[in-house]
Design a protein that fits this description.
mainly beta, globular, 20-stranded antiparallel β-sheet, five-stranded mixed β-sheet
Length: 827
C-alpha cells in the first residue's frame, strides 16, 4: 500500500507523460529575391491562436499543434503575405513548411496562396509506420477500425483479432487521444470508435519511441476530430437489408447490417471554444459471417431414449450464408470540446459505447431453442488535457483520464436474476407450462435427430457473468525545443486499476434435504463452485479486500527522449523505465503448498505477494535523408509488456478445486507469478520518391519475443496433499522476419492509388498460451523449436484505387463524385 501511495503522489510532480497526440510545424523564412533569412516574421495558424516568430536565422517552430489540417499565413511588414493551405499535422511527426516572401509593390499586394501537400517521403520519421487520415477514411469502402487496420502493411486481422508483425493479439497497444484503451484483463482494445469521428489513425509496426510502452508488437494511435470555426453537420446511412436472412443480393448474402451516423461541429459561444460530436447506431446482424450452407429438415423423429415423450416429430430450417443468434446492436457517442485561450488550451474528450450482443456457440444445434441469453457492454473514456505554453519553444501538458468498462449477461426469461435461470418451477410459470424441465433445476434432455443432438426449447446455454474494469490516470508532459536541432521530452505516467469479475453457472443449484441450505430455503442450495471470480463474493456482491477481493494493479512508466534533427541526419534516442505491480500472488512452494484440510483449498499462508517488476528499455532510431526524395532509416528497440492479467487472477475456491481435487481437465488453466514478455526488434528501410507524384517504401524487419505465456505441468512433491496440475507461466518464444513494400501515387488526374505488400515468416513454439495444453496434460513433450504460427500469413497485401472529381470538376452532376476499388489478398 505504501508504494502505491508514493507512486500516486508523483502524479503531482510536473514530469509525467501520456502518449503524444500532437505534432509540430517547423521551417525557414527567407527573402525570395536575395535568399537572406528574415527575422521577426509572424507565422500564424488561421482560425486558431497558435503561431510563432522567426529567429535571427529565419527559423520558426510551432509546438503542440493538435492533429488536423490547417492554413498557415506568414506576415511581415513590407512583404507580401504568403498563405499555405491544406497543411496536415500528424501526431509525433514534424511538418516542414518553408516560406519565401517577396517585397510589396503597388501592383502586387494580394497574398500568395499555395496549396500544401503532405510530402511523399517523411525524412524525420525513424521507423516504418502507416498513416490513415480522415480524408482517406471517407473514401475507403470499409467500416470500422479493424477493417481499416486490415489494409495496413504487416497487420493481420483474423477472427476479429489484430496481429502486427507476427505478434499475438494481446501484444498490440491502443491509444485514443493519448489515453490507453486496452483492457488489461484481456490485453485487447476495449473501446469502439465511430469511423466518422476519426481525424487520423497511425499504426506503428517497426518500433516506436520511448514515450510508448505496454505493447510488444505494435501501437495503434487514433485521434478524434476537433471542431472548426464554422458549423458543419453530416448524416450517413448504410444498410444491406435489401434481402432477408440467407437471401442473396448483388451476388452476396445480406447480413442485416446497418449504420446510421450523424456528426456535428463548430464554435461554441465563440471561435475560441469549438466542439465536435458524432453519434452512431450500428446493427450487425451476423457477427460470425461463417458462409455456412443452410438446411431444411421436415418430420424428424427424436430417437433419444432419455426423453420421456417418445417419437417427437419436429421440422427445422437454417439459412444459407447467415449465422442466426449472433447479432450486435451498438450505440456510440464520440465528442471533443476545445477551449483555446493562449497561452492556455484545454481539451476535453468523451467516448461512450453501449452494445447488446446475442451469441450462440452452436447455432445449428440450437435452432429449436427460442430461449436466449445476451450481454450488455458499457464503456466510457473521459480525458482532459490542459496545455500551458511557457514560451514559443517550451510547453507542458497536464492530463487526467478515467476509463470504465462493464459487462453483464442477461436472460430473456429472467433478466440478470441468475438464481432463477435454472429454476424449473419459475420457468414453467414464466412460459405458462410451455417449457417443462425433467426435474427440479434440470433442463430437458436434447433431441436426437439422425445422430445429432439438438437443444430443446428453454434449455439454458450460458453462464451468468459480469465484469467491471476501470482506471484513473494522470500525467504531465514536458517538451522543449532546445535549439533548432534538439526536441527534448521527459515524462512519467501512472494508471491505477480496479478490476472485478464474476462468473457462475446457474446449474450449480441443486435440491438438498431441509435445513441445510445456506440461505435457509430448505430445498435449494448453491454448490461450492464459482467460475473465474474476483472482486465479488459468492452471491455477486462487490468485495474489496481479502484474497478474493478486487484486483488493483498499478502501472507506471518514466522516460527521457531526445529527437535530434539535422539536415542530413535525424536521431531519435530515448530510454524508458516501466513499473508493473500486478497485485498478484504466487505459491511459496508450488509442488507442496500448505492445504486447508477443512475446505480442501490452498491455505492463505501458502501464498506470498509477487514483487513489482521494473524494466529498462532503450530505443534508438536513425533517419538519413540523402535528399528530399531519398531517405534511409533504421530502428532498434527493447520492449516489455505484461501478459493478460486474466492468466493470474482467480478466486481461492477455484484454484483450490483445480490443485487439491485434481482429476479435471481445464481448458483455461491459471497461473501465478508470471513475468513480463520481452521483445527485441530491428528494422532497416528505404524511402524513395519517383517523379513528382509517386513514392515507394521498402522495409526489412526482424523481431525476437521471449517469455510468452504457455501451459506447463507442475508435479506434486512426494507426500504432498495436492495432485499434479497444469498452470500458465512464461514459456513460449517466437521470431518474426519479413519484408514490407508500399507504393503510393498521389492524386494525379483525379486518380489516387495505394499498393501494400508484406512477406512475413512468423514462427514460434506456440500460437497461444493453451496451444499445447492437451500435450501438457498428457505429460507429453512440448515444442522447443519454432514452427509457423496459426495467424501467420506469408503473403498479404492490398490495392486501393480511388478516382474522384474535385469540388469544381465534373459539372453539376459529377461534382465531388468518386468511385473506389479495393482489392485484398493473402495466403
Amino acid at each position: 500500500m505504501l508504494r502505491r501511495l508514493l507512486l500516486l503522489f508523483f502524479l503531482t510532480i510536473p514530469l509525467t507523460l501520456f502518449a503524444q497526440s500532437s505534432g509540430k510545424i517547423t521551417g525557414f523564412i527567407q527573402d525570395k529575391q536575395s535568399g537572406e533569412p528574415l527575422v521577426g516574421v509572424n507565422v500564424i495558424l488561421e482560425g486558431t491562436s497558435m503561431g510563432a516568430m522567426s529567429d535571427v536565422d529565419g527559423y520558426y517552430v510551432v509546438l503542440n499543434v493538435p492533429v488536423g489540417t490547417y492554413t498557415l499565413r506568414a506576415n511581415y511588414i513590407g512583404y507580401q503575405d504568403v498563405v499555405v493551405e491544406n497543411v496536415r499535422v500528424s501526431a509525433g511527426i514534424t511538418t516542414n513548411i518553408n516560406f519565401e516572401l517577396s517585397q510589396k509593390t503597388l501592383e502586387l499586394e494580394e497574398a500568395v496562396v499555395v496549396m500544401g501537400e503532405r510530402p511523399l517521403v517523411e525524412k524525420n520519421v525513424t521507423q516504418s509506420y502507416s498513416l490513415v487520415t480522415s480524408e482517406s477514411i471517407e473514401s475507403l469502402p470499409v467500416r470500422g477500425l479493424n477493417d481499416i487496420l486490415n489494409l495496413q502493411p504487416s497487420v493481420v486481422v483474423q477472427d476479429g483479432a489484430v496481429h502486427i508483425r507476427g505478434g499475438r493479439s494481446e501484444e498490440v497497444g491502443y491509444y485514443l487521444d493519448g489515453a490507453s484503451t486496452v483492457n488489461p484483463v484481456s490485453n485487447n482494445n476495449a473501446l469502439y470508435i465511430i469511423q466518422d469521428a476519426i481525424e487520423e489513425v497511425q499504426v506503428l509496426t517497426g518500433g516506436y519511441g520511448a514515450e510508448f510502452g505496454g505493447a510488444n508488437s505494435g501501437i495503434v494511435k487514433s485521434e478524434l476530430r476537433t471542431g472548426g470555426k464554422d458549423f458543419h453537420a453530416s448524416l450517413d446511412f448504410q444498410t444491406d437489408r435489401f434481402a432477408g436472412e440467407g437471401e442473396q443480393f448483388l451476388g452476396t448474402y445480406a447480413y442485416q447490417d446497418h449504420y446510421l451516423t450523424g456528426t456535428f461541429s463548430g464554435p461554441l459561444f465563440s471561435d475560441n471554444v469549438r466542439f465536435f460530436a458524432a453519434v452512431e447506431n450500428s446493427f450487425i446482424g451476423d457477427t460470425k459471417k461463417r458462409f455456412s450452407k443452410g438446411y431444411t429438415f421436415t418430420d424428424l423423429i427424436d430417437s433419444n431414449p432419455k426423453n420421456a415423450v417418445k417419437d417427437t416429430i419436429a421440422s427445422m430450417s437454417y439459412p444459407d450464408g447467415f449465422t442466426p443468434g449472433n447479432d450486435l446492436n451498438r450505440w456510440a457517442l464520440n465528442s471533443t470540446v476545445l477551449f483555446d485561450f493562449q497561452p492556455f488550451q484545454f481539451r476535453l474528450s468523451a467516448v461512450y459505447n453501449f452494445g447488446r450482443s446475442h451469441f450462440s456457440n452452436q447455432p445449428m444445434l440450437e435452432v429449436l431453442n427460442e430461449r436466449d441469453q445476451y450481454t450488455d457492454v458499457n464503456t466510457l473514456l473521459l480525458s482532459g488535457k490542459l496545455t500551458h505554453v511557457i514560451n514559443p519553444t517550451t510547453y507542458y501538458d497536464l492530463k487526467v483520464s478515467y476509463f470504465n468498462a462493464g459487462s453483464e449477461t442477461f436472460d430473456d426469461y429472467f433478466g440478470n436474476d441468475w438464481r432463477a435461470w435454472n429454476d424449473s418451477s419459475q420457468i414453467a410459470q414464466k412460459t405458462n407450462g410451455a417449457v417443462t424441465y425433467r426435474s427440479a433445476f434440470r433442463a430437458p434432455y436434447d433431441y436426437k435427430f439422425n445422430g445429432f443432438f439438438f437443444s430443446q426449447n428453454g434449455k439454458l446455454e450460458s453462464n451468468y457473468a459480469k465484469t467491471s474494469q476501470n482506471y484513473f490516470s494522470g500525467a504531465l508532459d514536458f517538451v522543449t525545443q532546445y535549439n533548432k536541432e534538439h526536441e527534448i521530452k521527459a515524462g512519467f505516467d501512472v494508471r491505477s486499476y480496479t478490476l472485478r469479475q464474476f462468473v457462475i453457472n446457474p446449474t450449480v443449484m441443486e435440491t438438498i434435504p431441509a435445513g441445510q441450505s445456506e440461505t435457509d430455503v430448505p430445498q435449494v442450495q448453491w454448490k461450492e463452485y464459482l467460475g473465474n471470480t474476483y472482486g465479488y463474493d459468492f452471491y455477486g456482491n462487490e468485495l474489496d479486500n481479502g484474497f478474493d477481493g478486487a484486483k488493483k494493479p498499478l502501472f507506471a512508466a518514466a522516460y527521457l527522449q531526445d529527437k535530434i534533427e539535422y539536415q542530413d541526419l535525424i536521431i531519435n534516442a530515448g530510454v524508458r523505465l516501466d513499473y508493473f505491480d500486478t497485485d498478484d500472488r504466487t505459491l511459496k512452494n508450488p509442488g507442496n503448498p500448505e492445504v486447508d484440510e477443512n475446505n480442501k483449498t490452498i491455505a492463505e499462508s501458502a501464498w506470498e505477494d509477487v514483487k513489482p517488476f521494473v524494466e529498462v528499455s532503450p530505443r534508438l532510431g536513425f533517419s538519413f535523408p540523402v535528399s528530399d526524395k531519398t531517405v534511409f532509416y533504421t530502428q532498434y528497440g527493447k520492449f516489455v509488456q505484461m501478459p493478460q492479467l486474466n492468466d493470474v487472477y482467480y478466486n481461492s475456491t477455484q484454484f483450490g478445486t483445480q490443485i487439491v481435487s485434481g482429476g479435471n481437465y481445464y481448458t483455461n488453466p491459471i497461473g501465478f507469478g508470471i513475468q513480463p514478455m520481452r521483445t527485441t526488434s530491428y528494422e532497416i528501410g528505404f524511402r524513395q520518391q519517383v517523379g513528382d507524384n509517386a513514392a515507394f517504401d521498402i522495409t526489412g524487419f526482424y523481431k525476437n519475443v521471449k517469455g510468452q505465456p504457455a501451459a506447463r505441468r507442475q508435479f506434486a512433491d512426494a507426500g504432498a496433499l495436492i495432485t499434479t496440475y497444469n498452470y500458465i507461466t512464461n514459456g513460449d518464444f517466437a521470431t518474426t522476419k519479413g519484408l514490407e513494400f508500399k507504393l503510393t501515387l498521389r492524386r494525379t488526374k483525379n486518380l489516387l492509388a495505394q499498393l501494400n505488400y508484406t512477406y512475413t515468416q512468423a514462427e514460434g513454439t506456440g500460437s497461444g498460451e493453451t496451444a499445447y495444453l492437451s500435450a501438457v496434460d498428457r505429460n507429453s513433450e512440448t515444442p522447443t523449436i519454432v514452427s509457423p504460427l496459426d495467424f501467420n500469413q506469408r503473403h498479404r497485401g492490398s490495392v486501393n484505387l480511388d478516382y474522384r472529381f474535385g469540388p469544381d470538376e465534373g459539372g453539376a452532376i459529377f461534382n465531388n463524385f468518386g468511385a473506389n476499388l479495393l482489392f485484398t489478398f493473402n495466403s
